[in-house]
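Journal club prep — side note

Before the paper discussion, L.F. wants everyone to see what a predicted structure for a comparable chain looks like in token form. Sequence:
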Amino acid sequence: MPVVYILNNAQGVVRLWEQVDHLAYSASSGSYVLGSCHRMSLKLPEDDELHPEWRNEVISFLPEVHRSSLKLASSRTWSIIDSYTLGPAEHVTAIKNMSLEVSENTHERKDMIVVGTAFARGEDISSRKESVKGAVTALSEIGGQGFLIVAQGQKCMVRGLKEDGSLLPVAFMDVQCYVSALKELKGTGMCIIGDAVKGIWFAGYSEEPYKLSLFAKDLDYRDVLAADFLPDGNRLFVLVADSDCNLHVLQYDPEDPKSSNGDKFLNRSKFHVGSFRKKWILTPRFRDVKYLSLL
């Protein structure tokens, strides 16, 4: 059955009869970008070079698959003002609003909506994104130069946007299986890289020279659904949500002997929240509450 998703505030609502997987807000244009999907009938391509026998296939009862699309919703009129449908095998994996450098000469920066996708063509063909090798599964801003870090396949790559619209790689790091969470501590170059089956890493990006370095690992190999920083004064904590509906509080403290000189995270707490957590928002400090995270 179709699912109704509603964006609302005091001004109005937008109703979509589709499943919404990703959402980003563009403050410069006052609009929302949504990555949604709907079910559609699948017919095997007749021009596939690996499977010429598909051309002669005759079937009346076609299977159904998800078809992804991007939609632009105005916060002024609360209506869909534009949409773009992706190819049959292409799926939206991440949407972020970022301030990126758009000129190498003037160093001008603009707010850009960055969309990561992946092509999934079946179990006998590796998942990939056409313009890069490997599926793009997570995105984040990084550093102070207007660059972005992209999780693509088994690598995390820092890329800069060139004036011709292409992305220039400047640093990379080999990662594990599937990056499910990627987040920078804003403006510091320090980032966390969460893997769906291999736990979480703490890494840092330097600009002179361009380099990604690994600082610490989570040796318990948690299956990470979502992760974020939780700084508290001069202490650095990381929140991790796993597939068992648990919320873990980890600390990076290289001065603690149990951290093996900072090579591993320290377990500080664990909560069972009773449901899956895919996203949260870190809000500013309040007078009576140190930090408030909305899951």
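L.F.'s comment for the group: The longest strand covers residues 90-101. Keep this in mind when we get to the figures.
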